[in-house]
Amino acid sequence: MAVQIDGKSMTCEHVERVARRFEPMQVSDQAMAGVDRCRRMLEQHLAAGEIMYGINTGIGELADVTLSPDQHKSFQRYLIYSHAAGQGEPAPVESSRAGWCTRVNVLSKGHSGLRPLVLQQMVKILNAGLTPVMCIRGSVGACGDLAPMAQMALTLIGEGDVYLDGKIVPALEGLRAKGLEPIEFEARDGLATINGSNVITGMGALQVADVGRWIKTADIAASMTMDALLVNMISFDRRLHEIRGHQGSVTCAANILKVTQDSQILAQKEKKVQDAYSLRSTPQVQGPARDVLAYARNVIETEMNGVGDNPVFFPDEADLFYIPGANFQGTPMAFGLEFLGTAVTTVAALSERRLNRLINPHLSRGLPAFLVQRAGMFSGMMLSQYTAGALVCESRVLTTPACHGSIPAAADQEDFVSMGLTTALKTRQIIDHACGVLGIELLNAAQAFEFRKPLLPGKGCKAAYDCIREHVEPLVEDRPLYGDINTMTRLVKDGTILAAVEAAIGELA
Fold first, then answer.
1. Which of 86, 88, 324, 421 is deepest in the core (most CB within 10 A)?
2. Which residues of the chain have pLDDT under 70?
């Protein structure tokens, strides 16, 4: 089923469907009518000789240069040429598609002044399975993601490159392979396609969707570790968390109790009065990360359903049709993604401390050293903790903010920029590292269950254990662990473990 585009109801999950599953988009008739109405009003004002930024003027420091009517078409083409100034390897296909998808939604709101033909061409290209190639670096996050989005815009006019069946080919070749022909830009068309922070927004949408699954998996990993370490579960009583009032903590504690329910291991009487912080304060750490995720989702979905552009047009306002401004600034998304990256790193650091307790014989409540028999001859899971520590350390470096790192551009006309794409790039790395850390904790927790047999863990923990054992064998003697760790990283990242647990005990909150 096509993702419906109406300019107001797009979610991160809609973006994921277009970006990763190649599902088609369909712009509503009402939205397309609004785009057409705005364009007709713009053409009336242009015919009347009104001076409008980026339409019949230059841009940035050159905004005071007025263009003649016979220059309008060429200017839009040259604008895209000059701004396609990125650097580095091609962005992942999903990042390009996500940025393009969110830009379609912004333009469909009918406040950008481009021709409906241009919006239709954008939809046709993605729906045909083509993906514009853009360099991953070059955006400073204002005026939007100009460099990468200019490479996207090139494909509309049959220039630049696209992915066709997994291969990079010239855009004209790709278009014609799908029965499409390039269009020609007219006044406003080129600038309208690029003047927003939609690569940041699109990447952010995918990251929000990923962290939504990841944080539930973090609750599963914590549950398995709690189960294996005979934790005193009184610290997860809902009343304790409700009386403080942070909803994320309430949700996390409830998930952990649900996953560990009916555990024969936890039914044993030998419990500490209070467990270590890394165990009993898990809801107070992973819970707030959920609240940060909610904030980041709100920022990203507000942006993708708002008008991020410059200038902005108001076709229903007779006395104020045209307003120049700075709705392209990527700062809102940069703040949300900086905060999200910090929260994910914090939860990953907590995960590493929990897995340390599984392998440390002084802390593991009777489990063998490094979760292997004949420790000394064998080192068991020792080095898996090194890897988790390395991933956490790198993520901590990546949490250094980029959002206050402005470097002025355009002869100081654009003298404060968001650097939001830098934030999005490093938050993507943080999430990838965090999947590895959780995978290592899950790997160790499953290994710990081998030494609690014949006692069974909770129903949800058992489902996670069974899923892990379908892919990774128990460690009986030393073997290279990199394959197991990479497999576990994949199972976290693609939601396999989460799906197995939810199939057994129902959806986690």
1. 421
2. none
> DSSP labels for 269-297?
S---SS--HHHHTHHHHHHHHHHHHHHHH
CATH 2.40.50.100 at 204-302+346-505, yes or no: no
To the nearest 10°, the Cα dihedral for 492, 497, 501, 504? 160
* 397: number of Cβ within 10 Å: 11
> To the nearest 10°, the Cα dihedral for 277, 278, 281, 282?
180
- Please give the pLDDT value at position 269: 84
Q: Residue type at 390?
A: A
d(CA 68, CA 486): 59
Domain 3-196: what homologous superfamily?
Answer: Fumarase/aspartase (N-terminal domain) (1.10.275.10)
CB-based contact 442:457 (threshold 8 Å): no
Q: Active site includes 53?
A: yes
488 and 431 Cβ atoms separated by less than 8 Å: no
> Cα dihedral angle (38, 43, 44, 48), rounded to 10 degrees?
140
Query: pTM of the full predicted structure?
Result: 0.96
CA 484 to CA 243: how far, in whole Å?
Answer: 41
Dihedral, CA atoms, 293, 299, 302, 303, nearest 10 degrees?
-130
Identify the pLDDT of residue 224: 98
Token output for 300: 């990203």
| 53, 163, 277, 295: the active-site residue | 53
Measured between alpha carbons, how far is residue 359 from residues 256, 409, 484 in Å?
21, 52, 17
Domain range annotation of the chain: 3-196, 204-302+346-505
Beta 131-132 vs 161-164: how paired, if at all? antiparallel
Say what the alpha-carbon torsion angle 286, 291, 296, 297 is, to the nearest 10 degrees.
110
Q: How far is CA 382 from CA 209, 226, 370, in A?
A: 32, 19, 5
Q: What are the beta bridge partners of residue 272?
A: none
CA distance 431 to 426: 9
- How high is the pLDDT of residue 143? 85
